[in-house]
Amino acid sequence: MTYAFDPELLPWLTMLPQGVGFDDVQATRARMASMREHFPTYEPENPVTVEEMLIPGPVGAPDVRVRVYTPTSVPAPRAAYVSIHGGGFAIGDLDQDASVSFEIADKVGAVVVSVDYRLAPEHPYPAGLEDCYAALEWTAAKASELGVDTARIGIGGDSAGGGIAAGLALLARDRGGPAIKFQYLGIPELDDRLETPSMTAFVDTPLWNRPNAILSWKYYLGDRPADHYAAPARAEDLTGLPPAYVSVCEFDPLRDEGLTYAYRLIQAGVATELHHYPGTFHGSAMVHSAAVSKRMATERIDAVRRGLTA
């Protein structure tokens, strides 16, 4: 299929694999880590301290590694943001999330808690989600030590991170967990049924496509059937969820599930902002020099800032 990609993204297409080769998870992890070396890292303009630590994990599970970014020039109490990296539920780590975490801490002035949740297929659902819930609970419980305002805790992530964030919002609502002020759902992975028009059509798009999505959900779910915390698109009741920002890319198989979820949030009375970026594909924001990528990055920061201060 021919895709009308943004002209500024075209020169980069030959450098990107036609899908990340999700059939070999270990090789994919190594390949994506190598790719990150070719992209610039964010350098904060203001003082940001970074501390990596282990926090208590879910009951009966290992401790969870988190990396805490604190904007020391911003007086406490500050907002907080639990950041969940992407990677199809099976790849990614704290280093992948570092630039985004630095930027949010620096430009928003929020304490960022980046979560190194357990990955599939070694640790299928609900391991990753429960690790993120543990990080959310820890952030709220340690608010005074972290210099955090418990009334201004947000969550979010991109791709699988956005999907887990959506599931986390549902889980916190239903468990009566810590209050979440805002959820950022960037190009979220939400629906294991793989039936939307974009998921059916985009079988050969760069970085992410239908074949990889099939494997991603296979790894994440393991032998379990999907519930609405694993695949939030299955949730029947979206009322009472925190305000949301949802972004989607035009040539992304995840496009339609993100659009539909945003519409349903709005219909459920959840204050929701939705952005569709023409000419983009899943992960095209890594091409930092493109104007559309700069706009996506700026609007993410603005959305998190508004969400945590409104």
Describe, in plain words, how this protein is organized in 3D:
By secondary structure, the chain is an alpha/beta fold. It has a single domain (10-309), classed as 3-Layer(aba) Sandwich (Rossmann fold). The protein is 35% helix and 20% strand. The chain has nine helices and eight strands. It has helices at 25-36, 98-108, 127-141, 143-146, 160-175, 197-201, 210-221, 255-267, 291-309, and strands at residues 48-55, 64-71, 78-84, 111-116, 148-158, 182-186, 244-251, 272-281. An eight-stranded mixed sheet has the order 1-2-4-3-5-6-7-8, sandwiched between helices. Helix 2 (98-108) crosses helix 9 and helix 3 (127-141) crosses helix 5.
Short descriptors:
hydrolase activity; alpha/beta; AB_hydrolase_fold; Rossmann fold; Acetyl esterase/lipase; 310 residues; 35% helix; AB_hydrolase_3; GDXG_lipolytic_enzyme; globular
Task: Write a brief structural summary.
This is Acetyl esterase/lipase. One of its GO terms (molecular function) is hydrolase activity. By secondary structure, this protein is α/β, with parallel strands linked by helices.
Topology summary:
Layout: H1 25-36, E1 48-55, E2 64-71, E3 78-84, H2 98-108, E4 111-116, H3 127-141, H4 143-146, E5 148-158, H5 160-175, E6 182-186, H6 197-201, H7 210-221, E7 244-251, H8 255-267, E8 272-281, H9 291-309
Parallel strand pairs: 3-4, 3-5, 5-6, 6-7, 7-8
Antiparallel strand pairs: 1-2, 2-4
Helix pairs in contact: 2-9, 3-5
